[in-house]
Write a structure and sequence with these properties.
With about 450 residues, the chain is an alpha/beta fold. The chain contains 13 helices and 19 strands. Strand 3 and strand 4 form a beta hairpin. The relative contact order is 0.20. The structure holds flavin-adenine dinucleotide. Flavin-adenine dinucleotide (FAD) binds next to helix 1, helix 9 and helix 13.
């Protein structure tokens, strides 16, 4: 079969790998100049660093399986992580049960209760009931008032902004559940590739090419060509390319734009689903900002979701001894920060960085990089299963395989591999996917 894949992110590459290994003739079209999509790297301090902070959980068995098949298990290393919370000018450790018990902004009984709720959600496998209630309503009625105002309200508002009270509890359940199921007795360890996720992206792209796939970089698909709900081909650079089947792995709003012949009710249903953009400043510093890997902003008035100090997670020696920190935000597409340059955004956020760490001196910042994508996080509303897109689309032989499908899980590289695997098996049910072995 002749198969066209739109998008050279991890889902598109995985689908291409599986199908080409099963004997199909595959071409991948990628709009940007590099593979990897949201997990792509840029050159920082002499090595490749992800545009956005990335790590893996031990429970991420889909991607770990593929890592093994690519022969790069030794590159995936596991490091302890230090999670923190910034509250009223003070930094607190906030990762282990013992640290949560010492988190003095919450009354003691609420700290214990917070842990018990985490345990309950982590152990609960049946998530269906969480589809019918918002995270705001569930948390407000199950946790103490201080836990709500200091932990959950800033987290939900920081991540989802204007949509914060629309998000289903199923989304929050998935976040807590993943974290819980990846913990072992010796505390949390997170995975990272020596050389960055680019090592994985390039190993996958190499295997894809070796299987006979052409990866066309800088070649955005402008249109999916159809006739009466039948696929005709893809339009690229003004040319038509015929395919028997197409897998579309870019974000849903791009799918709707490139396939205007989709039925009006389908377009209407999927247009109602919102996405947030992601924006990260990467600060390259000669001194560290803090001792934590990840700091959540627990003061409601700080317009930053989290600070992720990458070199408090992996060795700074990998980056010529520099300290690297992401200043991370999810924002609606019309947010003013998307119209600002990196220096303007840094100037805007500097007073808040100083609020988190009053000793922070901006002269330690040697370089700033800016990464942004407009469709980086699906907003999961109530009853999402009844509105979410499926792999099959109204156009015969056109399949959607993007992050809007991973529900109830939240998007991540592990689920991009899973989506790529599943799309490949829909196109050709004889595709075999070896199981991950510890
Ligand atoms: C801030 C942030 C932090 C994250 N942290 C983590 C983490 O810690 N761990 C983790 O596992 N995951 C993390 N993720 C998620 C992870 O990066 C994504 O879930 C995953 O990379 C998605 O892969 P994908 O292939 O489904 O989609 P994408 O990566 O979005 O790939 C889609 C590709 O399609 C291309 N494209 C778009 N339009 C066209 C067109 N018209 N024609 C051709 N190509 C097109 C795009 O350029 C892109 O390369 C994070 C994401 C963000 C934004």
């Amino acid at each position: 079969m002749k198969i066209g894949i739109v998008g050279g992110g991890i889902a598109g590459l995985t689908a291409g790998y599986r199908l080409a290994k099963n004997g199909h003739q595959v071409e991948i079209f990628e709009a940007s100049g590099n593979v990897g999509g949201l997990a792509a790297g840029l050159q920082v301090a002499g090595t490749s660093l992800e545009k956005y902070y990335h790590h893996l959980f031990t429970s991420d068995t889909c991607i770990r399986g593929l890592v093994d098949q690519l022969g790069i298990r030794s590159k995936l290393q596991w490091f302890p992580s230090q999670m923190g919370a910034a509250y009223h000018g003070k930094l607190y450790k906030f990762g282990t049960p013992a640290q949560i018990l010492q988190f003095s902004p919450l009354p003691l009984w609420e700290r214990v209760w917070f842990g018990l709720i985490g345990l309950y959600l982590g152990k609960k496998n049946d998530w269906k009931e969480f589809e019918n209630v918002t995270a705001v309503k569930w948390m407000k009625s199950h946790c103490g008032s201080k836990t709500w105002s200091i932990i959950w309200e800033p987290l939900l508002k920081g991540k989802f902004g204007r949509y914060y009270d629309k998000v289903a509890m199923a989304w929050l359940w998935a976040r807590i559940h993943t974290r819980f199921s990846s913990r072992k007795g010796d505390g949390e360890k997170l995975g990272y590739f020596e050389g960055g996720f680019e090592v994985f992206n390039q190993a996958l792209a190499k295997a894809v090419r070796k299987a006979g796939v052409q990866i066309h970089l800088n070649q955005p698909i402008s249109r999916i060509l159809t006739d009466k709900n039948q696929l005709k081909g893809l339009e690229v650079n003004g040319q038509t390319k015929a395919f028997d089947k197409v897998i579309f792995s870019a974000a849903t709003p791009i799918f709707l734009k490139t396939c205007p012949e989709l039925p009006a009710d389908y377009i209407k249903r999927l247009t109602q689903l919102d996405f947030l953009g992601a924006q990260c400043l990467i600060l390259v510093m000669k001194q560290k900002f803090s001792d934590m890997y990840w700091i959540n902003m627990n003061d409601g008035d700080i317009p930053i979701l989290a600070l992720i100090e990458h070199t408090n997670f992996v060795p700074k020696e990998w980056y010529q001894g520099k300290h690297l920190m992401y200043v991370a935000n999810y924002l609606p597409q019309d947010h003013k920060y998307f119209k600002m340059n990196k220096n303007e955004i840094f100037a805007e956020l500097l007073p808040y960085l100083k609020k988190v760490n009053p000793k922070f001196d901006p002269s330690v910042v040697e370089e700033i990089h800016l990464s942004q994508d407009l469709f980086a996080q699906p907003v999961v509303p109530l009853h999402y299963s009844s509105v979410k897109p499926t792999y099959e689309t109204p156009i015969e032989n056109v399949f959607l395989a993007n992050m809007a499908l991973v529900y109830p899980e939240d998007r991540g590289t592990n689920f991009a591999v899973d989506v790529g695997n599943k799309a490949a098996r829909l196109v050709d049910p004889s595709v075999q996917i070896p199981a991950f072995k510890e």
